[in-house]
Design goal:
heterodimer, A: alpha+beta, Ubiquitin-like (UB roll), DNA polymerase, domain 1, 2 domains, 5 helices, 5 strands, globular, B: alpha+beta, Uridine Diphospho-n-acetylenolpyruvylglucosamine Reductase, domain 2, Uridine Diphospho-n-acetylenolpyruvylglucosamine Reductase, domain 3, Enolase-like, domain 1, 3 domains, five-stranded antiparallel β-sheet, four-stranded antiparallel β-sheet, 14 strands, 26% strand, binds flavin-adenine dinucleotide, binds FE2/S2 (inorganic) cluster
Chain lengths: 159, 286
């Protein structure tokens, strides 16, 4: 029962051994350790810009205690380029003009990656539902959906 | 000034022991989707954050004969991906699929949803309609609380300081009948409900043999509408009767105004949703 406690986790393949404050969110913990690519917005679970992948599942890091990531594997948008599925999504977002101000992009990409890893043949309506926890004020979502759909289609073909 | 502390026990027994020692000084954290915003907004003062998210023995969905049991830390995503929930307990699956968004669902637990005791808690109406009970434990003691007796007011429950919810149970008998969950929110996804309804309906020779209906966001607590149920039982369903039943609904609900809707609108909509649920289920049964 401590105000600060030891924590050990893997972030983008790199092992981090540190301490966390009792009430610290995973979002604050990540940023305190230099993972500034994880963005903070509302910090109450509404906007989705803080999304990371924890043991394969997309979660909002602002409503997660740092301690809940103890012993787990975290992937942030910086780690995406190390994986082919991540690179494809990044390229597709650029090609489709799915990025305007960029505020939502880091979280949107993480949600899309976790989703495509699980669901290989989504239609556009399903993609819209999958990204419903990530708010975008610029694009109107259309180009984002198209970017994700293009990757899903390409994955289908290459199988 | 006191500070937050953190602990993440690995077993239920450890949690109960800590609750016995710390009582109201402890704050259970399951998914954290309510607790973290509360900490941020300083609604929760510094306490011991008792993280139960890693306790495997509290995460299960079991069906034994006609008895169902769901562990407290089962997430909303776990409910959606469970084959038996989808096939045999569809009313809960419908509520889970309309709950928040996929990212919140990966963390939000069924126990946390009920313990938080929001009038808008989306798992409450279906579980009320299923006559669910809560398995509640403290050190060396177990008891069961019917869900209908559990909610005492907004964010107030029948839980004692040293108690936790360990599981939820209900029986299959209400599941063999058609059931539905309808949620009206301000947008299609990620919306806290304006009004919700969960209904189980059995019609025999055009008479209402059994009906159980519960609503969310229409009163200080998730509400089972016993008077409307009694009114409809053994009667022939027709348009006039449904209009009369809507009046029973208006008598039972007692909503508030907030940023999402006014009390008047909620009251009006509760009758409409009640009717929609009845029509949906009678179309399925006939
Ligand atoms: C963006 C967003 C959207 C949301 N949308 C919805 C929605 O559509 N529908 C809905 O119903 N809710 C919604 N919520 C609210 C929240 O996600 C749910 O209430 C969720 O089920 C809470 O579960 P949790 O495990 O995260 O609870 P926590 O935040 O961990 O805990 C909630 C409360 O319950 C207590 N508690 C937790 N587990 C136990 C236990 N086993 N025994 C005793 N006490 C316990 C905690 O101490 C705390 O007081 C939303 C939240 C966010 C942030
Ligand atoms: S910062 Fe986490 S959801 Fe907005
Ligand atoms: S690109 Fe600006 S919020 Fe999405």
């Amino acid at each position: 029962m401590m105000e600060e406690y030891p924590i050990e986790l893997t972030i983008n393949g790199e092992k981090i051994v540190s301490t966390a404050k009792a009430e610290e969110s995973l979002l604050r913990f990540l940023r305190r350790h230099g993972f500034y690519e994880v963005k903070g917005g509302c910090e109450k679970g509404d906007c989705g810009t803080c999304t990371v992948i924890m043991n394969g599942k997309a979660i909002k890091s602002c409503i997660t205690l740092a301690g809940q990531a103890n012993g787990k594997e975290i992937l942030t948008v910086r780690g995406l380029e190390k994986e082919e599925s991540g690179r494809k999504l990044q390229e597709s977002f650029v090609q489709h003009g799915a990025i305007q101000c960029g505020f939502c992009t880091a979280g949107m990409l993480m949600t899309a990656k976790a989703y495509l890893d699980e669901n290989h043949q989504p239609n556009k309506v399903e993609i819209r539902k999958a990204i419903s926890g990530n708010l975008c004020r610029c694009t109107g979502y259309k180009k984002i959906v198209e970017a994700i759909y293009a990757v899903a289609e390409e994955n289908q073909k290459s199988k | 000034m006191s500070q937050f502390r953190y602990i993440s026990p690995k077993t239920k027994e450890e949690v109960l022991k800590i609750l016995e020692e710390e009582k109201s000084e402890a704050c259970i954290v399951a998914g954290g989707s309510n607790v973290l915003p509360y900490i941020r907004d300083k609604i929760i003062p510094p306490k011991l954050l008792l993280d139960i998210s890693g306790i495997e023995e509290l995460n299960y969905i079991k069906k034994n004969g006609s008895n169902w049991r769901i562990g407290a830390t089962t997430t909303i995503s776990d409910l959606i991906s469970s084959k038996i929930i989808r096939e045999e307990c569809n009313i809960l699956c419908q509520a889970a699929e309309q709950f928040a968004d996929p990212l919140v669902r990966n963390k939000a637990t069924i126990g946390g949803n009920l313990a938080d005791a929001s009038p808008a808690a989306d798992t409450a109406p279906p579980l009320l309609a299923l006559d669910a009970g809560l398995e509640v434990e403290s050190k060396g003691k177990k008891r069961e609380i019917f869900l209908k007796d559990f909610f005492l007011g907004p964010r107030k429950t029948a839980l004692q300081d040293d108690e936790m919810i360990t599981g939820i149970n209900f029986k299959s008998d209400s599941l063999n009948k058609p059931g539905c969950f309808i949620k009206l929110g301000l947008r299609q996804a990620m919306a806290i409900s304006v009004v919700t309804v969960a209904m189980v309906l059995e019609i025999e020779e055009n008479r209402v043999k059994d009906i159980r209906v519960a609503m969310g966001s229409v009163a200080p607590i998730p509400l089972r509408l016993f008077n409307a149920e009694e009114f409809l039982k053994n009667k022939h369903l027709n348009d006039d009767l449904i209009e009369e039943a809507k009046n029973k609904v208006y008598e039972e609900v007692n909503p508030i105004s907030d940023i999402r809707a006014s009390a008047e609108y909620r009251c009006y909509i509760s009758g409409i949703l009640f009717k929609r649920a009845l029509e949906k289920l009678t179309n399925q049964t006939s």
